[in-house]
Design goal:
Layout: E1 2-11, E2 14-24, E3 29-33, H1 40-47, E4 57-65, E5 68-69, H2 75-81, E6 86-89, H3 93-96, H4 103-115, H5 119-132, H6 138-141, H7 151-163, E7 169-173, H8 181-198, E8 201-206, H9 209-215, E9 218-223, E10 226-232, H10 233-238, H11 243-250, H12 290-294, E11 300-302, E12 305-307
Parallel strand pairs: 3-8, 3-9, 6-7, 7-8
Antiparallel strand pairs: 1-2, 1-4, 4-5, 9-10, 10-12, 11-12
Helix pairs in contact: 4-5, 4-7
Bound molecules: iron/sulfur cluster (SF4) and magnesium ion.
Magnesium ion binds at residues 36, 40-41.
Keywords: ATP-binding, Cell membrane, Membrane, Nucleotide-binding, Transport
GO molecular function, one term: ATP binding
GO cellular component, one term: plasma membrane
C-alpha cells in the first residue's frame, strides 16, 4: 500500500531526514518510533505531501502509494489523497476539529468532499461511523460542539473524520499522547480493531515502545533523522541489535514499582543543526568505540531485521 524508499528531506541546506525506507501493506500496522526530534513526524508529513507547505522538499528517494509514485505529486492532486485515500490522525484533536462547528457537519464534510455524497447520505454515513467507533448515541453527538466532548471522545471524532472518506492508509501521529492512560489503551485497541475490520494499512508514529509492542507488526526506529533499526516487532523486542533500540526497550515501565522504572536515556537528542558525525548516536551510546565517532555505520541485516550499528552482528552473541 505504501512504499517509501531511501527518503531524504531538506529545508534549504539543512538535511533533517535521510535514507529512510519502509513499507506497509493492507491489514498491517507499522510503528515509527523515536524520541521527539528524531524525524518521525517529518516522515509522516512527507507521505502526506505537506512538506512544501512548511518550506521543505524531498531531495532523495521515492514514495509510492497504492502502486503510484506520489513523490512529486502537485498540491492539487495531493489534496484529494489527504483526507481521502490517506487519513490522518493527529496528536491534538483540537488541531483537527473546528471548535465553532458542530461535530456532525465536520464529519459529513469529509464524505461530501471526497465521496461526493449528499447531505442526507453523508449524515447517515457519519452516524454509522460514529457507531462503529463505539460512540454512544451518535445522532445526538452530531449536534454537539467539540468542547462538549471529553478528550477521548474528541479523539474518536478525529478518527471518524479520518475514516469518513474510506481511506486505504491511516497515518496516526502520536494519537494518544494527549490522553490519560486508560483512554490511551481504548484508542489503541480501537485503531487495532479498525486495521483488521477494514483491512487498513496503519502507520503509527509514537515515542512509546509499549504502544508499539501492543499494536505493531513491524517497526522502524528513528534517531537523528535516520532509521537506525527496523524489522518485525517480535524480532526487534526479542533481539534488539541497536543500542538505541535496546535503551528504548529498557525504558518501558514494568509494573508500578518506581524503583524498576528507568528515567529515560541519558543525554539529549541532537537537533538537525548539530547531528553528530560518524554514528549519530555515539555521544549517548554506552557501547561506542573509537570508530563510532568517525565512521557512519551502514545497515547490516541480521535475520529478518536490520540495524545501523558497527556492532549489530555481535549484539546478541552475548546475552543482552
Ligand atoms: Fe553505538 Fe557505535 Fe553502534 Fe553507534 S555504531 S550505536 S555509537 S556502538
Ligand atoms: Mg512529532
Amino acid at each position: 500500500m505504501l512504499n517509501v524508499r531511501d527518503l531524504g528531506v531538506a529545508f534549504g541546506v539543512v538535511q533533517p531526514l535521510s535514507g529512510v525506507s519502509f513499507s506497509v501493506s493492507q491489514g498491517e500496522t507499522l510503528g515509527i518510533v523515536g524520541e521527539s526530534g528524531s524525524g518521525k513526524s517529518l516522515t509522516a508529513m512527507s507521505v502526506m505531501g505537506l512538506l512544501p507547505l512548511i518550506g521543505g522538499r524531498i531531495t532523495d528517494g521515492s514514495i509510492e502509494f497504492d502502486g503510484a509514485d506520489i513523490t512529486a505529486l502537485p498540491e492539487r492532486a495531493y489534496r484529494k489523497l489527504r483526507g481521502g485515500k490517506i487519513g490522518l490522525i493527529t496528536q491534538n484533536p483540537m488541531t483537527s476539529l473546528d471548535p465553532l462547528k458542530k461535530i456532525g457537519p465536520q464529519v459529513d464534510d469529509v464524505a461530501k468532499l471526497h465521496l461526493g455524497l449528499s447531505n442526507a447520505d453523508a449524515r447517515a454515513r457519519t452516524i454509522d461511523i460514529l457507531g462503529t467507533l463505539r460512540i454512544p448515541e451518535p445522532a445526538l453527538i452530531c449536534d454537539r460542539y467539540p468542547h462538549q466532548m471529553s478528550g477521548g471522545m474528541k479523539q474518536r471524532i478525529v478518527i471518524a473524520m479520518a475514516l469518513a472518506a474510506d481511506p486505504d492508509l491511516l497515518i496516526a501521529d502520536e494519537p494518544t499522547t494527549a490522553l490519560d492512560v486508560t483512554v490511551q489503551a481504548q484508542i489503541i485497541r480501537l485503531l487495532d480493531d479498525l486495521v483488521k475490520e477494514r483491512n487498513l494499512a496503519l502507520v503509527l508514529i509514537t515515542h512509546d515502545m509499549s504502544v508499539v509492542a501492543q499494536t505493531c507488526d513491524k517497526i522502524v526506529v528513528m534517531y537523528a533523522g535516520r532509521a537506525v533499526e527496523q524489522g518485525p516487532v517480535e524480532e526487534i523486542f526479542d533481539r534488539p541489535r541497536h543500542p538505541y533500540t535496546q535503551a528504548l526497550i529498557a525504558c518501558i515501565p514494568r509494573g508500578l514499582d518506581d524503583a524498576t522504572r528507568l528515567t529515560g536515556i541519558a543525554g539529549t537528542v541532537p537537533t538537525v543543526l548539530n547531528y553528530p558525525k560518524g554514528c549519530p548516536f555515539h555521544p549517548r551510546c554506552p557501547k561506542a568505540e573509537a570508530i563510532c565517532a568517525t565512521d557512519a555505520p551502514d545497515f547490516s541485516v541480521v535475520g529478518e531485521s536490520a540495524a545501523a550499528c558497527h556492532f549489530a552482528e555481535v549484539a546478541h552473541a552475548e546475552p543482552a
